[in-house]
Amino acid sequence: MADRQEKPLRPVTKTEDPIISQIGDFRRYQLFFFFLILLCKFGTGWHTLGHIFLAAPTPQSCTTPNVTDPCSHDCWDTEFDTSVFKSTIITEWDLTCDRKQLASLSQSIVMLGVLCGSLISGMLADRVGRRPAFLTSCFMQLITGLIVCVSPYFWFYCFFRFLVAVATAGTMTTSFVLLMEIVGPKKREMVAIFYQLPFNIGHASLAVFAYFIREWRWFQFSITIFSAVFVIYICLVPESPRWLFTTGRVDKSIKILEKIAKCNRAPTETVRPEIEAAYAALAARQPLKKGTMLDLFRTPFLRVKTICMANNWLVVCMVYYGTAQYVSKLGGNIFVSNLIAAGVGVPGTCLCVLMTKFLGRKKTLLISNGLSAVGLILLAALSAQGDLVKVACATIGLFGASVTFPNVYLYGGELFPTVVRSNGVGLCSMIGRIGSILAPLICDLDSFGLWIAPLIFGLFSILAMIGTIFIPETRGAPLPETLEDGETFGRSKKALN
């Protein structure tokens, strides 16, 4: 009777991919793993954009009689308006007047940490495994984030915020790799885009945290302590079976695949013989010529595509992080303004799935960059208008960037040939982090005029649109494999002749 109640096994469609051929494209285990991994993604939004409220605008006034300018040499005593925020890093270390730029510099240091963390975690994950790199990043984020809460000095704060950013980039990079390596091609596109949603939700929820917690140390504690839940990853996140397979640890790979196949109600008796046969074929195969980052620039058309794609990454990182920070400078209710502006990222990411599927990557990128350009240039032109108008314009710009962000991940991965795909995406990511580093410094130009920063962001969005024209569509096309494919992919027959 018990045997009759057991659900029948569901055969797996065999493909050229030996891993997916054992566990299926996207079944019960992959769905569970997807939601499990998403937990760590919230922290990327909290820690990379927490500066919005850690360094929230805090008005300062001069209490010296007959002196109104708190930055005047005649002002001997000042006080901060703590009616909205009881404390920020501005009030903690008096980051005003000639020290005003230090607040934005601290956020640029965070973005530098993201850049370094992306590089370090990528190398660590390839060398020692995805699981050790992922767990190290998760617990490093928790420990360094808590140390930030007790920072006695400004530069101490900057150093540990840098380390938090290194760890945050590590969780972001390695979690994405862990997920992508067990999801089949049929669902990979959708999973890659929806993977960005917790970042948007994390960004939006910052306003809720800050509304109830008005002291920066407790605010930092509240966005860090959630990382304690990562202890469950020790038991629930295995090593990537694909990484184990490609590095020759076949037995360990087989054991993990058998557990996943069992969870997915797939046959397990074929796992060992098929994986061992696949590895024997892999070992006997002539190694494909490896490319380097320089190969991206050796031939003319691949060079153009690389430059244009890298420019898109630079712009979207600059526009998204810059506009997100700029919203807090627009006046009005800082909590409502940031919640609205950040909240559009959720529908933006969902819309990206539909647009890339039906319009393609290229048209989606043109439309989203155009939307950012329109919103930000309008914001520059209407910078003297009311708060509602300015927040609406900034929201349009941020919405465009929220559609662009998941698209450049997908588009970049499809554009570069296999032999230099990691180099290509890695280069674009590095260039993008430069945009993130510059963003808070550009926002500081508001002291010369509120219109300057959005105008710069808007013009860069137009530049990204122009560059996108030269990038070929990749939707439905076979991925380029060799450097020769990379040069010919997307070129017209007339150009090839």
UniProtKB/TrEMBL annotation:
Using the record's annotation, list all stretches that form the Major facilitator superfamily (MFS) profile domain.
36-476
Tell me if Transmembrane helix is a UniProt keyword of this record: yes
Q: Which source organism does the UniProt entry give?
A: Drosophila rhopaloa (Fruit fly)
The name of this protein is Organic cation transporter protein
For this protein, the record's Pfam families field holds:
Sugar_tr (PF00083)
Record localization:
Membrane
> Superkingdom of this entry's organism?
Eukaryota
What are the transmembrane regions?
A: 31-49, 102-121, 133-156, 162-180, 192-212, 218-236, 302-322, 334-354, 366-382, 388-412, 424-442, 448-471
Keyword terms of this UniProt record: Membrane, Transmembrane, Transmembrane helix
